[in-house]
Amino acid sequence: MLRPSKKMLFAIEAVLDIAYHAGGEPVQSREITRRQGIPRRYLEQTLQQLVRSGVLTGVRGPRGGYRLARERRRISVGEIVRVVRALEASEETAEELPSSELGKEVIRPMWTDLQEEIMKRLDGISIDDLCMKAYQTGIVSEVTQKMDFTI
Q1: DSSP letters along the chain, please?
Q2: What pLDDT does 9 receive?
Q3: In the prediction, which pLDDT does 41 show?
Q4: CA angle, 43 as apex, 38 and 44 as ends, to 5°?
Q5: What is the DSSP string of 94-131?
């Protein structure tokens, strides 16, 4: 069964959290941990990799944290998945495993085709799409709770 890793799900949740709750201020990793329940040991390494890959930008200082490097409509779920896959690349891949001729010539190509189809679908889903879904399902953004409309 195709199953995403914890790190992959945490990375998508973290980027979505930043997009959905940020407003104009950077989001600190401890806020993401509090809201999403993501262990910091997974989060920090993943956030740093997302910064290096250009999905997020890191802001230093006491009010620092993370923000999206681009508009949320320009960041796809597929891009985040690729970053995490690169992080996890040290694990043994299917090509390195011993296999029969049927495995090499039939099963692996089928699996590769399925993965390519899934990545195309994930590339078609933006962080903005996920933010809109969160809004439609009634999830309250902390940005709206912090806003002050005094005129």
Answers
A1: -----HHHHHHHHHHHHHHHH-TTSPBPHHHHHHHH---HHHHHHHHHHHHHTTSEEEE-STT-EEEESS-GGG-BHHHHHHHHHHHTTTSPPGGGS---HHIIIIIHHHHHHHHHHHHHHHHT-BHHHHHHHHHHTTPPPHHHHH-----
A2: 93
A3: 81
A4: 150
A5: GGGS---HHIIIIIHHHHHHHHHHHHHHHHT-BHHHHH
pTM of the model: 0.85
Q: How far apart, in whole angstroms, are the C-alpha atoms of residue 15 and residue 8?
A: 11
Q: Which amino acid is at 6?
A: K
**What's the average pLDDT block by block, 10 residues per block, for the chain (151 residues)?**
83 95 88 90 90 95 92 96 86 63 90 93 97 94 61 51
* Contact criterion met (CB below 8 Å) for 127 and 68: yes
